[in-house]
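We modelled the chain as a single entity of 112 amino acids. Its sequence is:
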Amino acid sequence: MEKQTFTATQKFLVVSPRKLRPIAKSSAKLSPLEAARRLEYLPNKGGDLILKVVKTAIANATQKGVDAKTLSFESIQISEGPRLRRGIAVSRGQWHPLKKRMSHITAVSYTH
């Protein structure tokens, strides 16, 4: 039996990739069902965003008739998206730039 892969992506999330990567790294070591169970209780905004992608990856696999208990993560990638250029007004009519960074999340799971 060959290895089937299932992907789920979420793009243009206004959260810095730096905040998402530690959560993704710890979740990639677990099975998708265990990762979904643990991500529900994280206080971070990133936990909810990664949870949404993990649940989508599980749903994509079950849609193809694969049992969710046999799934494993191949990878959870957090890549950088475009940056929104915003600014804040400061004294003497000046402006300090702010970069609001965006992230793309890709979760790849497979069956054994």
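As a brief sanity check on the tokenised model: Strands lie at 5-13, 71-90, 94-111. The mean pLDDT is 95.
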